[in-house]
């Protein structure tokens, strides 16, 4: 019995110790569970991101230039050979006949509208004009005399009218006075008509005199001289050929299948042989088609911001014809693109950190290029200082970029 009691006592003590150990272990277990929660994969990933961000901010910032990704119109084009066409060109002809007394221009001379080109012999016309002027003066003098006669006739009629109540009144003289007034008035009307006729004749002669001086109808360059001093020209004979060097259009024979994007008012670009590029607008698609080439002539009005030297009629140009209506596309500057193998990468500034984006590229539009995926409008894309950047590097945007 004694041994059984001792065994039960020992067993009770062990159980008490076990309970105390469990009570003491409970807080440690909670701490262990909390510690384990803190080191879960999600928490560890967040901790790594914060550490990396802190390291990036702790380093030296790279100075970069940025340009936003933006929407721009894009139209695909095909080059067509065209030519410059002088809107004004042709032969300048005499309007009256006469011998050439002066030729004021030669081939290559530039003239402004109204400048003298040639003068025909006009001595006879000047003589006719002088005679006609004297006839007009004579008519005016005659009119003055007739007006004086009318005044006298009206005065006589007045006197006869005053004698109606006296014995000296003569009906015959009164009627003669009335007739004299009417006759004087008719003479004045006839004289005025004669003066107007003489003035009209004088004006016609003056017109012929003016036409004896052949003047430039528009500004241009003399391309051909067709007469000489002393030669006789008839009305309609050409004196020089004149080509306008300022009023020029572009004409191109465009395939009928390419006319879809050439409505009136559409803007295009054209280039000269020396590489100079200019804008133009579609003025008209002419309704004539070449059955052999299946092309139609299209006229474009150039937009020269200032006079362009060296342009000539029939000069060859290259016109970029749009294949269809333009569309809005997202673009970035070409300097933003970094090639890494077969991939195209750009760096975007996000919270002062360089973030690498893989992009898919489309068509080029001048210094910019279309981006079909990987960016959105307004992203600050790095275009300067991106050569040695690494993802996550701290950056600072250059002022004025």
Overview of the molecule:
Helices cover 34% and strands 35% of the residues. The protein has 401 residues and is of the alpha+beta class. The strands form five sheets. It has a six-stranded antiparallel sheet, with no helix packed on it. A six-stranded antiparallel β-barrel has the order 3-12-15-14-13-16. A four-stranded antiparallel sheet has the order 4-11-9-6, with no helix packed on it. It is elongated.
Mean pLDDT, as a whole number? 84
End-to-end C-alpha gap: 100 Å
Query: What integer value in Å does the Rg equal?
Result: 51 Å
> How would a textbook summarize the main sheet?
6 strands, antiparallel
What is the top-level CATH class of the largest domain?
A: Mainly Alpha
Number of strands: 23
Question: Which strands sit side by side, in order, in the main sheet?
Answer: 2-17-21-20-19-18
Briefly characterize the structure.
With 401 residues, the chain is an alpha+beta fold.
Please describe the topology of this protein.
Elements lengths: L1 H37 L2 H18 L3 E7 L1 E5 L2 E10 L2 E5 L4 E6 L6 E2 L4 E5 L2 H40 L8 H41 L1 E3 L4 E6 L6 E2 L4 E6 L4 E8 L11 E6 L4 E9 L9 E8 L13 E7 L4 E7 L4 E3 L2 E8 L2 E13 L2 E6 L6 E5 L10 E3 L4
Parallel strand pairs: 1-23
Antiparallel strand pairs: 1-22, 2-17, 3-12, 3-16, 4-11, 5-7, 5-10, 6-9, 7-8, 9-11, 12-15, 13-14, 13-16, 14-15, 17-21, 18-19, 19-20, 20-21
């Amino acid at each position: 019995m004694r041994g059984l009691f001792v065994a039960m006592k020992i067993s009770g003590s062990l159980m008490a110790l076990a309970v105390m150990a469990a009570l003491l272990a409970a807080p440690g277990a909670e701490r262990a569970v909390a510690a384990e929660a803190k080191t879960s994969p999600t928490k560890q990933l967040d901790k790594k991101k914060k550490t990396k961000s802190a390291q990036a901010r702790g380093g030296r910032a790279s100075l970069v230039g940025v340009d936003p990704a933006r929407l721009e119109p894009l139209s695909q084009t095909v080059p067509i050979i065209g030519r410059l066409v002088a809107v004004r060109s042709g032969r300048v002809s005499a309007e009256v006949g006469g011998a050439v007394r002066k030729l004021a221009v030669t081939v290559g001379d530039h003239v402004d509208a109204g400048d003298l080109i040639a003068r025909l012999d006009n001595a006879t016309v000047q003589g006719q004009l002088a005679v006609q002027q004297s006839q007009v003066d004579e008519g005016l003098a005659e009119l003055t005399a007739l007006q004086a006669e009318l005044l006298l006739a009206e005065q006589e009629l007045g006197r006869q009218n005053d004698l109606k109540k006296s014995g000296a009144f003569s009906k015959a003289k009164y009627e003669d006075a009335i007739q004299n007034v009417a006759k004087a008035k008719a003479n004045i009307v006839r004289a005025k008509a004669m003066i107007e006729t003489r003035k009209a004749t004088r004006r016609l002669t003056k017109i012929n005199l003016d036409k004896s001086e052949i003047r430039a109808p528009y500004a241009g360059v003399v391309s051909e001289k067709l007469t000489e001093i002393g030669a006789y020209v008839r009305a309609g004979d050409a004196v020089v050929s004149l080509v306008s060097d300022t009023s020029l259009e572009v004409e191109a024979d465009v395939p009928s299948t390419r006319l879809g994007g050439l409505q009136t008012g559409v803007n295009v670009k054209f280039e000269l042989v020396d590489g100079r590029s200019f804008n133009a607008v579609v003025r008209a698609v002419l309704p004539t088609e070449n059955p052999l080439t299946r092309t139609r002539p299209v006229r474009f009005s150039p937009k020269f911001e200032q006079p362009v030297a060296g342009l000539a009629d029939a000069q060859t140009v290259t016109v970029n014809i749009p294949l269809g209506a333009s569309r809005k596309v997202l673009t970035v500057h070409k300097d933003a693109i970094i090639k890494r193998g077969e991939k195209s990468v750009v760096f975007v500034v996000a919270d002062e950190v360089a973030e690498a984006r893989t992009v898919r590229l489309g068509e080029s539009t001048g210094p910019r290029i279309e981006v079909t995926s990987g960016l959105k409008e307004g992203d600050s894309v790095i275009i300067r200082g991106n050569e040695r950047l690494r993802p996550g590097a701290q950056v600072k945007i250059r002022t004025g970029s």
